[in-house]
Amino acid sequence: MEGVPFLHIQAQISPYPNTTPSHHMLVLDMMAPAMALRLLVVVAVAAVVSCAVAADEVGSVVEVWPMPATASKGGQTLHVSRELRMTAEGSKYADGEAILKDAFQRMVTLIELDHVINGSSQGLPLLAGVNVVVHLPGDELNFGVDESYNLSVPATGNPIYAQIEAQTVFGALHALETFSQLCNFDFTSRLIELQSAPWTITDMPRFPYRGLLIDTSRHYLPVPVIKSVIDSMTYSKLNVLHWHIVDEQSFPIEIPSYPKLWNGAYSYSERYTMDDAIDIVQYAERRGVNVLAEIDVPGHALSWGVGYPSLWPSATCKEPLDVSSESTFQVINGILSDFSKVFKFKFVHLGGDEVNTSCWTSTPRVKAWLAQHGMKESDAYRYFVLRAQKIAKSHGYEVINWEETFNNFGDKLDRRTVVHNWLGGGVAEKVVAAGLRCIVSNQDKWYLDHLEVTWDGFYMNEPLRNIKNPAQQKLVLGGEVCMWAEHIDASDIQQTIWPRAAAAAERLWTPFEKLSKEWEIAALSARLARFRCLLNHRGIAAGPVTGYGRSAPAEPSSCIKQ
């Protein structure tokens, strides 16, 4: 047998709740027994009450989010062993073995949901463990890595083992998440159960880029909050955290090459060290999530000049960055040099949006430089963006820019540029027709700070709209929902993101032909409500499905009716 001959991990499902709370856990001691019983009566089945996304009866909808590519099930209920084991019989995955071990332990915590597990199996078949076979040995999270998996759960056997098969460890991580959604706490037996065995699921993502943007310039987000967001992303199989680190309001990250840059932070404590950034990146990568770093240049950079005033065109006109100064590009080079040691994702985002160039012509020194070089304001904007691209390329990055760069001088962009659409519809088709790659985030549908956009608007937003050519369709890398932070902070970020981001996540993961149609909204809403309840039980403060973004519950009722 090649590779790992036999990897054995045993997870004891404790009869008592963990004493150390985490963002995965729900402390049910806070819920009165009468309330728990009332929820049972309302929902009628324990699987729904616990909001674990288990299948119901044979032939009913598959309650997994996002919907897998293919899934079949039976009618047998299994109890999950309190000593659930993970084996790797037949696997070739040896490098970074801890990624899989840690993921399995997290999965056990998720299915336990901090309940007291102290019942007996009452004669039902017992699921003893999960065997995970990974065919490739590496664990480098490259863009476009194979995320596919097969998951099967037999109804019989001695012992009964679920089987996961994936090309890479990152596909196996997705399989473990799907497995966790098949399990729920049984309030009768006081055990974890898995309904509707045998299961056979084959799954893979529709798009390689499935992103969520967070903004730590408008409001600082503590490191534990960022990690909680990363965890929540994995529950709906999002795989890119776009970290909009700095903007005009604050510069919270340490840059060793230019240590005064983070003087532009809001306060001494609202900062990230380079070690913090490394910790966040590694935390994300171990969960199959890449971190895309962004510095938005030349606009959105007023905070840079707090530590280095020479980056401003003048003391009275501070944005965009001074295009006439070589030191401006030296600072960009220093930032990207430091980034290249931390942010290992192949892409870096250089912004390029909303650039008001009037400062350049109203500042005599810069205006003289423009005249000397025969440039108009628009020429200088293009010069700045293209020069910043060259600097990023020198550090091994491929560049993502916001769509204004394409709208203004698309034919001059580096041909490896990825254009990030945000202003509205119709841009992606123009970008791919020009032979460039594109990420879709049109603000009318996929901006989470637009609270008036309901979950169904997020779900029905199709990245390939009006793009019929198969070669051009492949140039659409995927999409991203954006959590701009002018009006959110650590107190309300999760209920603003979820569950609407999950609606977009299914659009980006599930095969087009399996996606729900507009006339199936009622059934889709019920599925999303159950997933939202699952997030709540996992400690993620997802808002109600009904109403607008970040709505409060309208009245007392079951979670699945909100």
Automatic annotation (TrEMBL):
<feature type="domain" description="Beta-hexosaminidase eukaryotic type N-terminal">
    <location>
        <begin position="64"/>
        <end position="182"/>
    </location>
</feature>
<feature type="domain" description="Glycoside hydrolase family 20 catalytic">
    <location>
        <begin position="207"/>
        <end position="511"/>
    </location>
</feature>
<feature type="active site" description="Proton donor">
    <location>
        <position position="354"/>
    </location>
</feature>
<dbReference type="GO" id="GO:0004563">
    <property type="term" value="F:beta-N-acetylhexosaminidase activity"/>
</dbReference>
<keyword id="KW-0326">Glycosidase</keyword>
<dbReference type="InterPro" id="IPR015883">
    <property type="entry name" value="Glyco_hydro_20_cat"/>
</dbReference>
<dbReference type="InterPro" id="IPR029019">
    <property type="entry name" value="HEX_eukaryotic_N"/>
</dbReference>
<dbReference type="InterPro" id="IPR017853">
    <property type="entry name" value="GH"/>
</dbReference>
<keyword id="KW-0325">Glycoprotein</keyword>
<keyword id="KW-0378">Hydrolase</keyword>
<keyword id="KW-0732">Signal</keyword>
<dbReference type="InterPro" id="IPR025705">
    <property type="entry name" value="Beta_hexosaminidase_sua/sub"/>
</dbReference>
<comment type="similarity">
    <text>Belongs to the glycosyl hydrolase 20 family.</text>
</comment>
<dbReference type="Pfam" id="PF14845">
    <property type="entry name" value="Glycohydro_20b2"/>
</dbReference>
<dbReference type="GO" id="GO:0005975">
    <property type="term" value="P:carbohydrate metabolic process"/>
</dbReference>
<dbReference type="Pfam" id="PF00728">
    <property type="entry name" value="Glyco_hydro_20"/>
</dbReference>
<dbReference type="GO" id="GO:0030203">
    <property type="term" value="P:glycosaminoglycan metabolic process"/>
</dbReference>
<dbReference type="InterPro" id="IPR029018">
    <property type="entry name" value="Hex-like_dom2"/>
</dbReference>
<dbReference type="GO" id="GO:0016020">
    <property type="term" value="C:membrane"/>
</dbReference>
<protein>
    <recommendedName>
        <fullName>Beta-hexosaminidase</fullName>
        <ecNumber>3.2.1.52</ecNumber>
    </recommendedName>
</protein>
